[in-house]
Amino acid sequence: MNAAAIQSKVSAADIPLEMIANDRALTQPQKVAEVSRQFEALMLRQILQETQKTVIPSSYADNSTTAGIYQDMVVNQLADDISKSGALGLAQSLEQQLSRQLSPTSPAGSGRPAGAKPASHPEADAVRPNHLNITKKFQPNANQHP
After folding, report:
1. Per-residue pLDDT tens for 82-106?
2. pTM above 0.70?
3. How many domains does the chain have?
4. Would you say residue 120 lies in a domain?
5. Cβ-based neighbours of 18, under 8 Å, separated by 6 or more
6. 137, part of any domain
7. Residues 75, 45 contacting (CB under 8 angstroms)
8. Which of 39, 80, 95, 109 has the fewest CB atoms found within 10 Å of its own CB?
9. Is residue 29 part of a domain?
């Protein structure tokens, strides 16, 4: 039996967050997209958990440990489903920003690497003032009232 033929295609969503960076099966854009989606899911979890705190306590509600665990599972699944749907849009925005920062050229399109410093121009230093010489002092007009 050929094991390579049985191997299924791995989705980035199936890989734990801490293992995404070292996974060679994923391309850089796939890693950025999945990290962005998981960050969005994390933010949604925080929002959903905070909204649960505002619920008025009731004697009819189950406040047991089991109910708390179940509620956490519901919040986690809901946050993951919302982030996978793309309805919020935070993951897409974050993915665009991260992709720009990871691109091999600078945003100005000059062909320099993204971290490269601009060349120094001695002529530019000659026109910069060494200090500010302020000779006029501000004096309020006597006719103006606050």
Report:
1. 999 999 999 999 999 999 988 766 4
2. no
3. 1
4. no
5. none
6. no
7. yes
8. 109
9. yes
